[in-house]
Design brief:
The protein is an alpha/beta fold and about 190 residues long. The protein has helices at about 1-15, 30-40, 55-60, 70-80, 135-145, 165-170; strands at about 20-25, 45-50, 65, 85-90, 100-110, 120-125, 155-160, 180. Helix 2 (about 30-40) links the parallel strand 1 and strand 2.
Length: about 190
């Protein structure tokens, strides 16, 4: 679902080779898949995440990296003074990253847009539900994952009998990856 959401967002933008794309929340599940898929189609990716994720994201194909936080737009614009062609906002920063957008570019959001915009910016809301029947794309993403090209970050594996412990670990936060429940040994 994360890779399909990323593919859906990229398809909505239809960026050409050499275009610049800012990805917020780039180290998250949707963000990391977006970095890989955008890089694969020849788009220059600017990844926004925490400092500890820079190596991970550069290994995925991010050309530029900006540490998230209050001065993120300044850091992006110091690397790309003209701004970026488009944004995929997986971290729900919304108008907080618009200063990094060139002219009347486009921003893809995964949640409803809350802020007013009057400068010609194109806001594109995408929802993965519209692609659930897209078997060809899903098969392509499965092949990429099987080939090790898409990041499948696993933070921990719990036997199904320890589902409560898995939920407690999830609720504690700070995970880098998903928790997996193992049903193989369930009686």
């Amino acid at each position: 679902m994360n890779a399909l959401t990323a593919r859906n967002a990229l398809d909505a933008l239809n960026l050409g080779i050499g275009s610049t794309l800012l990805v917020t929340g780039a180290a998250g599940a949707v963000g990391a898949n977006t970095v890989v898929l955008a890089h694969e189609q020849g788009v220059k990716v600017i990844a926004v995440a925490s400092q500890g994720d820079e190596t991970f994201l550069r290994d995925l194909g991010a050309e530029y990296f900006a540490v998230r936080g209050s001065s993120v737009n300044e850091r992006i614009l110091s690397a790309l003074p003209a701004g970026v062609d488009a944004i995929i906002d997986t971290a729900n920063l919304q108008s907080g990253v618009l200063p990094s957008l060139r002219g009347s570019g486009s921003i893809v959001v995964l949640r409803p847009w809350a802020d007013p915009v009057s400068d010609g910016t194109h806001i594109i809301h995408v929802n993965v539900r519209g692609r659930l029947g897209d078997q060809a794309t899903i098969r392509q993403l499965v092949r990429l994952a099987a080939d090790g090209k898409l990041p499948l970050r696993v933070a921990g594996i719990y036997p199904a009998s320890q589902v409560v412990a898995a939920h407690q670990r999830f609720d504690a936060g700070g995970l880098r990856g998903r928790l997996v429940l193992d049903f193989e040994h369930v009686l």
